[in-house]
Design goal:
- The chain is 11% helix and 48% strand.
- The termini are far apart.
- The radius of gyration is 34 Å and the shape is globular.
- It has 652 residues and is mainly beta.
Length: 652
């Protein structure tokens, strides 16, 4: 049997060295993991604190029914809010609240004061000594920024005819610092206000309880389901889409003078009407959030009363959401555009009934339109322009505007785009040159019929006027401009160019050589190419539904430089997500839809796709009891989900 032998000194030292290295590596991993966990935990805490602050401010805003205003100076940013409520006995209580970001200590404070109303003087006074007041109550610490967006407003008229600005929605953004330099931000969702709220910091303007003069008109309304007569006053009056109301004009004595006034609804394009007797019919598809109603004396049109009612009820089933201009072809001196309407709930025939009006403006104002463009048909969905090749027109900027109107909903939408006339004119072979629009594939462009050797090119990102945008120089690696022949260059770009924004690219061609007669000559030519952003526009599609047919189809539109690569790409670049599917079926029967095919589209046609649905039941007697109702599909770019639109299918 062999002898047991211990470690030699050399072996022991080697073992200790190896163990030391292993322990250092292990400790390093543990410290890195700890730091990652700590950082992740800190990031999460900062975000939560910022969101908590936003949520607290949102809760204060949502129920305000008086007014709101913002002040911002070197010391603080402050939002003031005014509120009124009935104490249950008919007495109105008034309050002023404030959210203040103190820039010196980076804290946010909230305050509240009672507001007293003096009926004899008609004045409002902030009562700083009231028992229920509180001031500078700490709401949040380590706040690095505080922003409130009050830009979503509506201008309307008060009972006395003066204009008032109504805040429709509010957006709050807060930056938060954990005290150790870690900053995060939180932004509220768009806060749609429950009540009508004025943009004002004047209590008298907001609450306005002054007694009207003896000959001042006030408006009231009633309907079949409201027995009493309700005054049209701020924060109270609501009318429902599809309902009818009787509007009364009264003076302070209470006399009914309906026969002495003419009625008007101020909003243009409204689907609501009011007749000579003051009967208000609110359109079922009324898109306006408020209606401004005026009663005007027939004998003295300057004497009038104006009231505002809030339109409530389910969102209109049909809505003309927007219109967009898509550059179809951008040939030099002959650009072509099309209008793309985005609707909700429209049938194809209703969408086809939308009317269009195109107008062109020449930038600068010293040139008549007839001197710049040939006569054109401005009443079609597409616009074809022919630009006059007068040297005085070269380089001018045109603003192209489309106005689209739907008689179905009474809504009018507009969009505009700019087009810079080519700077070089007809001598440069424009008949075979396209100024833009660049698409996904390689495109060939002719710079000049008079080109020769030697020549070279320079290119960079610019604005529509051709001014270089150096901030985009980092994206130049995605562009390729290659010399093909003595008069043509190849322009292409590769994957990686952000798709959600538009670009202009200037290509400058230089030539130095010998001209006719042996003279030395230098030429410079330029082209500004347009790369439109990738956008998806959805729509409502109606599918006939019958037992035994398990297929459905839908359409959407893709525009931008990617559109010709969209439908036929392999692997697919699109993604479909069925977010809502409404149907009824017998207990235990499950209907499952899926998208199975996308079909190629032409240049001016939407993409259409096909889907199928299946059921889990083998009992055929149950299938005729299935009723498909609607489906909502999110169509997006697979690797850029911020580019998306919704398609709604309604099964008829």
């Amino acid at each position: 049997m062999g002898k047991n032998r211990g470690l030699s000194l050399v072996e022991l030292l080697i073992t200790i060295a190896i163990l030391s290295v292993v322990m250092v590596i292990a400790v390093s991993f543990m410290m890195t993991g700890s730091r990652s966990f700590t950082k992740g935990n800190a990031d999460s805490n900062v975000q939560k604190e910022a969101e908590l602050t936003v949520n607290q401010i949102e809760d204060m805003i949502i129920d305000i029914n008086g007014g709101v205003a913002m002040t911002d100076d070197a010391a603080k940013t402050e939002m003031t809010m005014y509120h009124t409520e009935d104490d249950g006995t008919g007495t109105m209580l008034y309050t002023k609240e404030a959210v203040t970001w103190n820039k010196s200590d980076n804290n946010v404070y909230c305050s509240k004061w009672k507001v007293n109303y003096d009926a004899s003087a008609g004045t409002y006074t902030v009562d700083t000594a009231a028992a229920d007041n509180y001031e500078d109550q700490l709401l949040a610490e380590h706040v690095t920024s505080f922003e409130v967006d009050l830009n979503d407003t509506l201008t309307t008229k008060a009972l006395d005819g003066t204009e008032k600005t109504i805040v429709k929605s509010v957006l709050v953004r807060v930056g938060y610092d954990d005290g150790a330099g870690k900053v995060d931000y939180a932004t509220s969702p768009i806060i749609t206000l429950r009540n009508r709220m004025l943009l004002s910091d004047d209590p008298a303007d907001i609450f306005d309880e002054a007694t009207p003069a003896a000959d001042t008109l006030k408006l009231y309304y009633t309907s079949t389901d409201v027995e009493n007569i309700v005054p049209i006053v701020d924060r109270v009056s609501e009318v429902t889409r599809g309902n009818t109301y009787n509007i009364y004009a009264r003076i302070s004595s209470g006399s009914n003078i309906n026969d002495l006034v003419d009625w008007e609804i101020d909003e243009t394009g409204t689907l609501s009407t009011i007749d000579d007797s003051g009967y208000l019919s609110v359109g079922a598809y009324e898109a306006n959030a408020y209606l401004t109603i005026t009663a005007r004396y027939k004998s003295n049109p300057n004497k009038k009363a104006t009231g505002v009612v809030k339109v409530v009820g389910d969102t209109a089933l049909k809505s003309f959401k927007s219109v967009h201009i898509d550059p179809v072809h951008m040939n030099a001196f002959a650009p072509q555009y099309r209008a793309i309407p985005v609707t909700e709930g429209f049938t194809q025939s209703e969408e086809d009934a939308i009317t269009y009006q195109w107008t062109i403006k020449v930038e600068g104002g010293n040139k008549a339109l007839s001197d710049v463009v040939e006569s054109f048909d401005g009443n079609k969905k597409t616009l074809d322009l022919v630009i006059k090749k007068d040297p005085d027109n070269f380089g001018r900027m045109l603003e192209i505007i489309v106005e689209a109107h739907s008689d179905i909903t009474g809504e009018t939408r507009t969009d505009s785009i700019k087009y810079r006339i080519d700077t070089n004119g007809a001598v440069d072979g424009d008949s075979s040159m396209e100024r833009g629009k660049l698409e996904y594939d390689t495109t060939y462009f002719k710079m000049s019929d008079k080109w020769g050797d030697p020549h070279w090119y320079e290119y960079y990102f610019c604005n529509e006027y051709g001014d270089r945008i150096e901030a985009y120089d980092s994206l130049l690696g995605y562009l390729q401009v290659q010399d093909i022949s003595w008069d043509t260059y190849q322009f292409s770009f590769t994957e990686g160019l952000p798709r959600a924004q538009e670009y202009y690219v200037k290509v400058i061609g230089y030539y130095e050589g010998t001209g006719d007669g042996g003279w030395k000559t230098k030429w410079t030519r330029e082209r500004i190419h347009y790369i439109p952003p990738v956008q998806i526009y959805g729509k409502t599609c109606f599918n006939p539904y019958k037992f035994g047919d398990n297929a459905f189809t839908f359409e959407y539109t893709v525009v931008g430089y990617w559109e010709n690569a969209w439908a036929n790409s392999n692997p697919p670049v699109y993604q479909y997500d069925i977010e809502e599917f409404d149907y009824s079926a017998p207990a235990g029967v499950i209907v499952t839809p899926q998208i199975v095919q996308t079909v190629t589209h032409g240049d001016d046609n939407p993409i259409w796709a096909r889907g199928e649905w299946s059921v889990n039941s083998g009992d055929w007697s149950l299938l005729d009891q299935i009723e498909l109702k609607s489906m909502k599909i999110r169509v997006s770019v697979k690797d850029e989900p911020s580019i998306y639109a919704y398609v709604t299918i309604i099964f008829e």
